Amino acid sequence: MFFAKIDPVAFRIGAWPVRWYGLLIGLGMAIAYSLFMREVRRKGMDEDQAFDLMFWAIIIGFIGARLYYVLFSWEAYQSDPLSILFIWQGGLAIYGGVIAGGIVLYYFARRYQQPVFLWLDMAVPSLMFAQSIGRWGNFINQEAYGRIVDLTSLKSLHLPQFMIEHLWIEGAYREPTFLYESLWNLFGGLILLCLRRLNQHLKLGEMTCFYLIWYGIGRSFIEGLRSDSLYFAGFRISQVVSILMVVGGIMLGILRRKNSNIPYYSDSNIM
Q: What is the pTM of this model?
């Protein structure tokens, strides 16, 4: 049975198209916000301060994700710089968003004289779920796809037919790398939630280290399967950043585990 390609426009409000890409990113942000605020209340954090942080982290993170993508894809925009504003067409790089959002979080933590790693540890599970949902926006837009594969390979993954049909991109079937990363992030987020609730011996900052290592490992391997990677000087940018994340996460985790002065996450509250 033949399935038509998924229309990137979910519905219209008058003449204004509302795209699946934006809806899915918005859904991811809403879920991330809900999970973050739930933990904020549990830890005794000021909700107004937390709202300010999330609001600006989302705004600045979104801008950072776009600028990062444009920076390493400048050839596609230099003839028409105005197209940089056409974010509904896709073109967001998660690492740019994470870096920008992290800077915002650091700023607010210092501004309110609160532990940076406590805020980070509260945020990373939410971030992983948002990333997991956001990858489906890439699927709808037919981006973040993998190498050319045959139909038999896709069917062996037991994907629904509509998904297989939508993976026909530029004259060939493509590996569903968006799905690999979505599932990897989902599992990572679930692990973080379990660790946060069940492990009473996690030191402050170790969940952030887990995020750096877990996401870095997964993204490094998955990026190697993609055929639309961003390159600089012959290297896949995301693979380089991923490797640095893993190394940094391991080193930071070792240092924090050995430091007896660092409190446990379960004992850390913002008063």
A: 0.89
